[in-house]
Design a protein that fits this description.
Elements (H helix, E strand, L loop, with lengths): L2 E5 L3 H9 L5 E5 L2 H10 L4 E5 L6 H12 L4 E5 L11 E3 L5 H25 L7 H6 L6 H15 L5 H16 L4 E6 L5 E8 L3 H6 L2 E2 L3 H9 L3 E2 L6 H9 L4 E7 L2 E8 L10 H40 L3 E6 L4 E4 L1 H7 L3 H4 L11 H11 L3 E7 L6 E10 L5 E10 L1 H47 L3 H29 L7 E4 H11 L10 E6 L7 E4 L1 H17 L5 E12 L5 E9 L6 H5 L4 H4 L8 H11 L3 E6 L4 E7 L5
Helix pairs in contact: 2-3, 6-7, 7-11, 15-16, 16-21, 17-18, 18-21
Length: about 650
């Protein structure tokens, strides 16, 4: 991987440069002096230097940088005038990412050519004598015992990765005495290896070095699965990365075929290198460490996932309770605590019977049967809480139940709000109904009261007494009818069943209706279709006639003309089950009712707000149903009719 040093005190410029430097190991320096220190410490490929500053500062920096690192190329950012010629490349002040990428590519091409020329001109170096001498050395028994003892502390460190790595580096340092040592671990995404623990490395290297997992040294170690020594390397990229880490040996830490870490050793304190026996022994030891690191990484991943899940549960607006196979509570989130008024500390790991009834029964049934329960409203015995619950079972790969989950929401506030709204609506409705009733009875009472006031003065007038009797009789009948309708809405009263002829009951009703009265200001024309046979039904004849009269009054009231024409007929109708019923048809070609009004025709709460006459069909329906029959309505293009269906009397 190529290294880049950014030299600028400007945070905004640094951010712009970093945006276009993906795939580089990046070092940063706020000043020229800090940059020179980094150049002495690390082999830098490219230096991106901010040209802002006093005159001559760029030229001075370029001269000093070439003295310290002759192989580094300097790219001036925003240089102009004579100073532009001192740098190897130049990027304009308002550069784009594409312009920066082009300059960097040209600079790297130039540097690669320079290195190839240098390699061709430099003679090959013989194998150092120290290497041959080192081949014969190995760890003695005492050193090996110290390492094994240190490794026992590593395994005793538990899941503390930092402690494990520090203990391991101390053990390595006590035995082979490297000047520098580092352990590199992959990042969370597994794309780069970074230094996780070290001894003897400069902070700039620790903070900046990034090795791509799919390139260079990590790729070679993952593919080969064996240590690599600097004196055996011919690939210049591998040489550069080892030198970047100031190491001469790199050992892979493999677990189940995956590269979980990289161990890099610098020069030993004494000697020119490490023997083959030492590297082999070290490789055997770090293989065991790789398993430990992998297990710790897996444990940390599970911990993070558990923490993430717990955070989700804690922020959910629904309560969540889980149980395991042992029928003990495994999880209770914050919302569940608030709704149930229980502490998770006191409930978790307890038997499911600790939950308020019937929550424990629902979880047990789901766990035992494996059947989920869809959303259902229930009321707990605990504080009479209304909640909406659903349950489902958790299964393993073999579909065996692992546990059950209960999800619930508190509906108490919604229920209370709905009850308050319902009470408010009912109170408002009651107000309108009372106002309508008062309006219905006011007119008759006014006329009655007027005649009572005049009766003392005009009692001897026979015309007045006759007119008074007629009006009072009519208005009293209207009052009685109002209260009968209201009473029929709330109570059925006592019914006296007897077998009667339905046609005869209809005929009696027509004869009893006074064609000139009704208080509706209209003339009523009633036509009864003749019947050729009797139609016996077992009903209360009085209540049947009353129900039919309300229907006739409703049709009369909704006839727009002064003349209301209503027809009645009685017949039989076959049922799908083979039986038959007696049907009384009350229809009118003069009545007209909107479709919207027909939809709420049998709702007394809605109809009573308009007129007590309009509530007549609802009262009739209640009376007919009390007699064992049914009442329906149908509207055709030319006629509106009610259909009263009654069961026939037994023979």
């Amino acid at each position: 991987m190529n290294t880049v040093l950014i030299v600028t005190p400007d945070d905004a410029l640094r951010t712009r440069l970093l945006r276009g430097l993906g795939g580089f190991t990046i070092f940063e320096a706020p000043s020229d002096s800090e940059a020179v220190k980094t150049l002495r410490l690390v082999e830098i490929d490219l230096v991106l230097r901010d040209s802002a500053g006093p005159a001559g500062a760029l030229s001075t920096f370029v001269s000093g940088a070439r003295d310290v690192a002759p192989g580094a190329l300097v790219v001036a950012v925003g240089a102009a005038g004579e100073e532009e010629a001192t740098a190897d490349f130049m990027v304009p002040d308002g550069f784009t990412t594409r312009e920066l990428d082009t300059v960097l590519r040209h600079a790297l091409d130039k540097q690669r050519l320079m290195r190839e020329i240098k390699m061709l001109r430099s003679p090959s170096t013989p194998l150092p004598a120290a290497r041959a001498a080192a081949e014969e050395t190995s760890w003695d028994n005492a050193a090996l015992a110290r390492v094994l003892k240190a490794f026992s502390r590593v395994f005793a460190a538990g899941f503390d990765l930092r402690r494990v790595l520090d203990t391991f580096l101390e053990a390595i340092g006590d035995v082979i005495r490297p000047t520098r040592v580092a352990v590199l671990l992959p990042d969370t995404d597994g794309r780069e290896f970074r230094i996780a623990a070290h001894r003897g490395l400069a902070p700039q290297i620790v903070q900046s070095v990034r090795l791509p997992a799919a390139e260079g040294l990590p790729r070679w170690l993952a593919a080969q699965g064996r240590p690599i020594a600097l004196h055996d390397v011919t690939d210049p990229e591998l040489v550069r990365e080892l030198k970047l880490l100031q190491g001469i040996v790199a050992t892979p830490l493999l677990a189940h075929g995956d590269l979980v870490a990289i161990l890099v050793l610098g020069q030993p304190v004494f000697g020119a290198g490490y023997s083959r026996a030492e590297i082999e022994t070290l490789f055997d030891l770090v293989t065991q460490l790789a398993t430990v690191i992998r297990d710790i990484a897996l444990h940390q991943q599970l911990e993070r996932e558990k923490e993430f899940t717990e955070r989700i549960l804690s922020h959910m607006s629904s309560g969540v309770v889980t149980i395991g196979r042992d029928q003990r509570v495994g999880t209770m989130n914050r919302r569940a605590e608030e709704i149930l008024g229980l502490s998770a500390h006191a409930v978790v790991r307890q038997d499911l019977r600790v939950l308020p009834s019937p929550l424990g029964d629902l979880l047990f049934d789901t766990l035992s049967s494996g059947r989920p329960m869809p959303r259902t409203e229930i009321q707990l015995a605990l504080r009479r809480l209304w909640i909406e619950v659903s349950t489902y079972v958790i299964r393993d790969e073999e579909s065996a139940p692992l546990g059950a989950v209960l999800v619930f929401e508190d509906l108490t506030a919604q229920k209370e709000l709905a009850a308050q709204k319902r009470e408010a609506d009912q109170f408002q409705l009651l107000t309108r109904v009372v106002a309508r009733i008062a309006d219905e009875i006011k007119n008759p009472l006014v006329s009655i009261n007027t005649f009572i006031e005049l009766i003392g003065e005009r009692y001897d007038d026979p015309d007045f007494r006759r007119h008074f009797s007629s009006v009072v009789r009519r208005d009293v009948r209207r009052l009685v009818e109002v209260f009968e309708k209201l009473a029929a809405l709330v109570t059925e009263g006592e019914l006296n069943f007897a077998t009667v002829d339905a046609f005869e009951a209809v005929t009696q009703l027509v004869e009893a209706i006074d064609l000139a009265e009704g208080g509706l200001g209209k003339h009523l024309q009633l036509d009864v279709a003749p019947a050729s046979e009797p139609f016996p039904v077992k009903v209360d004849a009085t209540q049947l006639r009353k129900a039919l009269s309300y229907l006739i009054r409703y049709l009369t009231h909704n006839s727009p003309n002064d003349l209301a024409k209503i027809s009645l007929s009685v017949g039989r109708h076959a049922e799908p089950d083979g039986g038959h019923d007696v049907r009384i048809l009350v229809g009118s070609r003069t009545a007209a009712v909107s479709a919207e009004k027909l939809e709420r025709l049998f709702d007394p709460v809605q109809m009573v707000q308009e007129s007590l006459i309009d509530v007549g069909p609802a009262v009739s329906q209640r009376l007919v149903e009390a007699l064992g029959g049914r009442l329906g309505v149908r509207q055709t293009r030319h006629e509106l009719s009610f259909v009263v269906s009654l069961p026939p009397a037994a023979a």
